[in-house]
Task: inverse folding
């Protein structure tokens, strides 16, 4: 028997908006100016939130916090494509997606103070609680997609995770299950190239993370994760495919973690300033400003005005968050079970 | 009333509940076309279709994790983990998510699901097919752990578990699957979770056992004036039923299939010591497996608590 070529595979990369702010018109999604401006507002809001969260942590007013700086396009662009009825399973570094989906800002801050009451996502949002155990939320998203399929609901499910999660068994088990059952799900990997101190090249020998989807029988695409239009376009297409029975998609948003892993981390221990500096000019907000300026939709003054507005929104949210009364000891028992056991009842009474 | 074995009783409970409630969906390895390796889910694929009886890839963490997502979405999934020794692959999903989802979402989401798994030794199976590590799972707040001891309790407890608003780990004693036949009502009945059952009434000594050990205990106590408490729910276990019996007899033997150290018997003994020590006339004795890994078949009879060891413990406490 001669050797045969069994199969060959292609992995595609999508970019729409280049670092100079110029777009590929053929790929530019149809978005009215007002929608593009809304994306810009949300990216500015995300960065303002993030900067404030870091400074609140430094002042002892917030617990350990994982910054999203640099990932605003990946988060806002993907979440912007979602319908309110779609389900979202986040990790812990998607505050830009939460803000885009309309999660109350005081509540987002409240979570990072260490108050788990903030995990009670408002009833109108189909967002799962933050998931700190890396990658373990991905099977939940697959399960929700199984339920969607069973109920024949016109919705899709989105799982967010980072590059580190693609090394976990749960990622592979979940991707495999999604492929086998052709589920209505979109896997969004924010490849920020660092899992605490481990760089991408030590995380995987694969040439891309997108290509991991091919092994599970569905499409994977790498997009420029600092390009809000590319992320939006890829997510929108993947959601439409999911809802029309076309099965799952893996979207790798290639971006960069501009800040430390968390406020408890010091990235200077393991990566060079030069590497970080090289990514500064590819900043997703800067890029969008260049695009908007060329269309005469943006100026320094308009940008400052928008940043001032975001600062005001965050100021008010911080005030509201800090006015919340702390939880009492009895709240340890809230929701542990629908009905507490006799022993838990005793413990709640202080025995 | 029909005489059923435990496999038939569990199958009947699953089928009845699936007919009653379209939210109930089974998933696991070989649960569909094969009817499960013990045939517990036999016929359910034909009856309810492939959307409600899902043959999954071989991936325990994904089975458990997917069940969590299904439950949060509003279904009542019943994941089967083929043997208890394979639940370890799914442990993070059970511990970090299923048991905590209601609490960490402060009630926005819940996880009503029944994780079925065969457990226990004595079936001449390969490594990791005869595990009995229930106490590990009893240390997880938010998770109920249930172990029926025969066909009648299996059906009533499973129906209760399937209607419970929170996750339940349902341990099916593999050795008893076809060993016992009992009268099982055809209709609907539930045995409330958290309630023990007095399997035999006596006055001189309390024997506490559950699941796989109950049949052996009942045989071993013949000729003794023993109260036998069948725990049924391991967490939360029925403290009042235990204390009621202990106050009556003053003597306690706890029989557990698992290794001794930090087993469920230790928690029961500590509870009795806290709540009823003044009623005791003798030390609390435990008859357990030794603190070694579960052996293969050639050694299993030396591992499992034997009738001889159970009777020796009874004789010892009765000397006081």
Result:
């Amino acid at each position: 028997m001669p050797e045969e070529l069994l199969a060959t595979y292609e992995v595609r990369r999508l970019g729409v908006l280049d670092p100079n702010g110029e777009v590929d018109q053929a790929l530019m999604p149809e978005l009215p100016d007002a929608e593009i401006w809304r994306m810009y507002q949300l990216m500015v809001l995300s960065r303002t939130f993030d900067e404030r969260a870091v400074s609140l942590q430094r002042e002892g007013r917030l617990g350990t916090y994982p910054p999203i700086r640099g990932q605003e396009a990946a988060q806002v662009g993907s979440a912007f494509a979602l319908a309110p009825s779609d389900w979202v399973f986040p990790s812990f570094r998607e505050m830009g997606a939460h803000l885009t989906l309309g999660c109350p800002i005081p509540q987002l801050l409240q979570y990072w103070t260490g108050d788990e009451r903030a995990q009670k996502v408002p009833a109108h949002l189909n967002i799962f609680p933050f998931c700190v155990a890396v990658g373990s939320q991905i099977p939940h998203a697959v399960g929700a997609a199984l339920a969607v399929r069973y109920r024949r609901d016109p919705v899709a499910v989105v799982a967010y995770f980072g590059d580190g999660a693609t090394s976990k068994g749960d990622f592979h088990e979940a991707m495999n299950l999604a492929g086998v059952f052709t589920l209505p799900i979109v896997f969004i990997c924010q490849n920020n190239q660092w899992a605490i101190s481990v760089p991408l090249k030590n995380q995987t020998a694969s040439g891309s993370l997108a290509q991991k989807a091919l092994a599970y029988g569905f499409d994977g695409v790498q997009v420029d994760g600092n390009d809000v239009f590319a992320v939006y376009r890829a997510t929108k297409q993947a959601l439409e495919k999911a809802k029309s029975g076309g099965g799952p998609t893996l979207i790798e948003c290639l971006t960069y973690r501009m800040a430390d892993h968390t406020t408890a981390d010091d990235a200077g221990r393991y990566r060079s300033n030069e590497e970080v500096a090289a990514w500064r000019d590819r900043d997703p907000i800067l890029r969008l400003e260049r695009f908007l300026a060329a269309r005469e939709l943006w100026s320094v003054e308009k940008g400052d005005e928008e940043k001032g507005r975001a600062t005001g929104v965050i100021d008010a949210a911080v005030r509201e968050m800090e006015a919340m009364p702390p939880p009492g000891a009895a709240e340890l028992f809230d929701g542990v079970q629908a009905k507490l056991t006799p022993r838990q009842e005793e413990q709640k009474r202080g025995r | 009333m029909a005489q059923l074995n435990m496999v038939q009783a569990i199958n009947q409970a699953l089928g009845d509940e699936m007919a009653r409630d379209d939210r109930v969906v089974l998933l696991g390895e070989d649960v569909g076309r094969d009817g499960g390796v013990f045939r517990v889910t036999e016929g359910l694929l034909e009856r309810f279709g492939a959307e409600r009886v899902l043959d999954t890839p071989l991936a325990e963490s994904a089975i458990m994790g997917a069940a969590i997502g299904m439950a949060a979405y509003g279904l009542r999934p019943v994941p089967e983990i083929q043997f208890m020794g394979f639940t370890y692959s799914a442990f993070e999903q059970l511990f970090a998510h299923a048991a905590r989802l209601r609490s960490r979402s402060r009630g926005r989401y819940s996880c009503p699901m029944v994780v079925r798994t065969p457990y226990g030794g004595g079936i001449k199976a390969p490594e990791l097919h005869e595990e009995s590590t229930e106490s590990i799972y009893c240390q997880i707040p938010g998770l109920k752990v249930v172990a029926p001891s025969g066909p009648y309790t299996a059906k009533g407890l499973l129906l209760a578990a399937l209607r419970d608003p929170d996750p339940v780990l349902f341990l099916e004693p593999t050795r008893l699957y076809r060993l016992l036949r009992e009268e099982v009502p055809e209709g609907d009945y539930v045995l409330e979770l958290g309630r023990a059952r007095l399997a035999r009434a006596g006055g001189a000594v309390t024997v506490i056992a559950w699941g796989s050990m109950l049949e052996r205990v009942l045989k071993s106590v013949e000729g003794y004036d023993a109260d036998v408490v069948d725990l049924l729910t391991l967490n939360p276990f029925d403290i009042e039923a235990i204390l009621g019996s202990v106050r009556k007899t003053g003597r306690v033997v706890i029989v557990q299939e698992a290794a001794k150290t930090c087993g469920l018997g230790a928690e029961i003994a500590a509870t009795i010591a806290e709540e009823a020590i003044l009623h005791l006339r003798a030390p609390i004795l435990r008859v357990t497996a030794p603190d070694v890994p579960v052996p293969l078949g050639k050694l299993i009879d030396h591992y499992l608590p034997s009738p001889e060891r159970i009777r020796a413990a009874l004789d010892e406490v009765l000397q006081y």
